[in-house]
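Suppose you are handed only these lines of text.
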Amino acid sequence: MLDLDRTASQVSEAPLHHTTRWSIDAAVSLIQQPFNDLLFQAQAAHRAHFNPNEIQLSTLLNIKSGGCPEDCGYCPQSARYDTGVTATPLMSVDAVLTSALQAKAAGATRFCMGAAWRAPKDREVAQVAELVAAVKGIGMETCVTLGMLKPSQAESLKSAGLDYYNHNLDTSPEHYGDVISTRTYRDRLDTLDAVRDAGINVCCGGIVGLGESVRDRAGLLCQLANLATPPESVPINQLVRVEGTPLANEAAVDCFDVIRTIAAARIMMPSSFVRLSAGRKELGEAGQALAFFAGANSIFYGEQLLTTPNPQQNEDQDLLARLGIKTMVGQA
Ligand code: SAM
Ligand code: DTB
Ligand code: SF4
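From them, the structure of the protein bound to iron/sulfur cluster can be written out as follows.
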């Protein structure tokens, strides 16, 4: 098994990193060790920082669907691909509140609103700020993912009561250009800085299954773990292969590789929430149980992600009950 203190202090050149807490070589070794050693180490790190029998539930709502100008090769909401997703205008406060109240009644503690924008206009940020304030008003944590954000926009959202901003790095800097050409890795890091500087919690992770190598997965995790302050929440998505997107025919990912990525995220960012995100239906119950053992301690809860299906709420409640996992209790 790897010596954590030794590997964590190994340093290599990495221009985009804010720190060099983790080297890519150390992260590759971590991910590639025998599965049982990796899971044992991840579970130990998990227990040192969290109750291993508790997870956090967030419900997602697509508040503005489709028609996005970006070319993210995985995304069914890009206007460039024929995926059958219809473009819709931004939802009203009333419609969002109805959905948030349902999510709260079903047991979610956080409500995450996603918009298929490249970058919101100031007017759109003002509209989303109203949504944030309304959801906050019913006693839920709030999260939004709106694309690239300027510092002043992050500050407006913070003033409205925003708790988390989701903005993923998606993959390593080296693989990134094979997946997305319309915004740079640096753009993404700048948005993360704006969010952090505004005092909003950072939710940032990536996708497994974009045709990346193990080294790319390690590279993504190093980017996250080496941020000056690692993200409070780290979503690990398995690619949902959607017909019409450039990655629709990408090879299926080995479920153990998803779990290895989760375990490595847990070890490299021991005090962050690691979210088992898109791909839970594909993982199945046994795969999800392994992911929880590997240190995943939050999920998206609700029958729909943004445009693709997620397990039913009663299926999740049943699985969690059978595993003896309790869900975190929300604010008042
Ligand atoms: N438009 C905003 C942006 O890109 O920042 C917010 C919404 S975007 C859909 C949020 C994230 O969802 C993406 O960064 C990506 O990591 C994830 N995602 C999108 N499509 C996916 C897919 N087919 N499979 C897995 N994850 C996906
Ligand atoms: C994240 O990392 N995963 C969520 C959330 N952040 C916004 C989105 C997953 C989207 C999966 C494809 C879809 O449903 O459109
Ligand atoms: Fe647009 Fe976000 Fe989809 Fe990229 S991931 S195409 S920015 S909605």
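What can we learn from it? Residues 17 and 226 are 6 Å apart (CA to CA). The first strand starts at residue 54 and ends at 64.
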